[in-house]
Amino acid sequence: MNYTKFSKRNNFVRPSEIREILKVTERPEIISFAGGLPAPELFPVNELKNVCTEVLTKCGEASLQYSTTEGYIPLREAICKRMEKLSIKTSLDNIIVTTGSQQALDLSGKVFIDECDTIICESPTYLAAISAFKTYLPNFKEIPMDEEGMIMEDLEKALKDNPNAKFIYTIPDFQNPTGRTMSLERRKKLVEIANKFDIVIIEDNPYGAIRFAGEDLPPVKHFDTEGRVIYLSTFSKIFAPGLRLGWICADKSIIQKYIPFKQSADLHTDIFAQMITAKYMEMYDIEEHIQKIKEVYRHRRELMIQCIEKYFPKDIKHTLPDGGLFIWIQLPSNMDASDIFTKAIKNNVAFVAGESFFPNANFKNSFRLNYSNMPDDRIIEGIKRLGEVLKK
Amino acid sequence: MNYTKFSKRNNFVRPSEIREILKVTERPEIISFAGGLPAPELFPVNELKNVCTEVLTKCGEASLQYSTTEGYIPLREAICKRMEKLSIKTSLDNIIVTTGSQQALDLSGKVFIDECDTIICESPTYLAAISAFKTYLPNFKEIPMDEEGMIMEDLEKALKDNPNAKFIYTIPDFQNPTGRTMSLERRKKLVEIANKFDIVIIEDNPYGAIRFAGEDLPPVKHFDTEGRVIYLSTFSKIFAPGLRLGWICADKSIIQKYIPFKQSADLHTDIFAQMITAKYMEMYDIEEHIQKIKEVYRHRRELMIQCIEKYFPKDIKHTLPDGGLFIWIQLPSNMDASDIFTKAIKNNVAFVAGESFFPNANFKNSFRLNYSNMPDDRIIEGIKRLGEVLKK
Predict the structure, then answer these.
(1) What is the CATH number that goes with domain A46-283?
(2) Which residue out of A64, A136, A159, A191 would a mutagenesis test of the B interface target, given it has the greatest number of B Cβ atoms within 10 Å?
(3) In sequence order, what are the beta bridge partners of A167?
């Protein structure tokens, strides 16, 4: 059968480049800095054995039955506590549990985007947010960044030019893909501008808890006085991505808009996963666990930066992330990262070329490196090999 | 903040009536036939303790890490075997794991529906499929049913009138809400008509494995010679709905269309849930478990029918399901099930009024009863109370 009656959005949402790359990089001889995977040796595997037994013993039937769309109350209570630590005052009505924060992106598309609407994002931005939003056929207006994040003058101009824009999407902490962090001043300014132009901000913050250098900054939502910041986060980077647990924290009036779409998307998120995550936080100290993650990632990031400075040509720039999982490499303007990728794969080392992170796909001279998922010897060897390719 | 820049689809997708009803029916004094919940006392809670320990011991890190969009290979292999038992020949490339079969409905909307497209469904049909599809703003063409399912003459006429219709959605086995089963002749005819009009069929089959009376019928997909039947099913009714595990079985060319949307929806389905489900089927006999479910549901369905025939007025008709979870009640045409509902709640008994199951919401004299989730004494007492309300 050669069926043709598919929806228009099939022309815009395609298998992601990363996914295709990851297939290549599964070959064991390849040192891959391509994915964005946490260090699996840090997962609390043994603790979870106790946790699963406890959940099944204490509330076995409920952990396997249909459950509520908003999420398991003890988990939402624990999320409220995490939000309070970030100086965001919140209650159960402000929280909905999602199937990973990826689902929160998809639901945001559903709640806000009509075909041909404009949405505003950083340039570059998270590749899987681009495909989640593209499903709903918007136009992307990219805002240039510098080391302090989105440039506010450009944002203000974009909003003047697009008064009906639906939302501003930002990843303020250790951004994927650049590793950059939005400065305190810009956070305040961002909320001020959003208030002025009456637009919501979607603050995607999966990495904020993994700060291993510099000083903590309050989330953009902390500065929100009008309930217009929608904060997304996840247990993927601080606990276990395999369980697919994320959350949305927003004004109650906004959460009410998400609920019917969450319900029609998957009824509710796996209640067993929600219960074991809540129980884990009750039985163990997740802050202690996060501390271990930070130490390992700090070390790996420092090692990778040292190697970059040692092995890469001097005209190649890199970011210096204070947390998160990624370093962004800026090549001279005449270089194309896709060409470098082809050569790198022949040298058994991989990364993600930068183009996929630009929704309008118009910058070719950059790429993203991940440092969280790799032991020391492979970081050293991989960056050395990449340096050889770049020097050619 | 009184934000107004939401998408159009917010006007069509609202919190489902069932969800609101379930809140009312959570009050312990109410006997609720409203939900569609499996019997929780049958969940294999103790077996799962062993299974979780085994998965965490043998592949702890992989069970908590990011995984592939298509799903865990051993689970997809087990699904292939289940499909083969249903006389559907299939391979790994034909299967994608979804976050409940609810997600398969949402993804089907993404793959096929553009705004104002026509889609074809039974009248009545599954309420959460209606809201999943409504997200993508189609028109619904409802096809009348009789005791043998969708009436084929009406379907053919609808396809003549709507040559660009995107798909035919059907629940052939023990349909939700009616409990009706499509006859063998109609299954063959349905595929023949779909071939003639070059349209895909979405066969939603969550209940097929729970047949407790009559003879097994092959799924619609069994008669598919051109790869145009997309078969959806789930572990929710045969194992544990809380884990949110469903699947799509379709032609490889169709599965390829679903993958990017699955990826942008939630990257992949909870891998821990996938692994424990696969491991459960390796360590225990799921067929034996399904047999237990069938016996309990057969008994409850027989008891409920007996009570209906004893306590309901004689001019009220009911279906006689050979499996699944639901009985459909047809009231005289001058009665409105919403009025009955209001009175029933005062008498501490609940159901779902039929109107929600008609996408164009134009039939008021029917309602749905669930029998799977209730012990004998509550079935007897609940139907007795309902009979009193109906007699008034």
Answers:
(1) 3.40.640.10
(2) A64
(3) A200
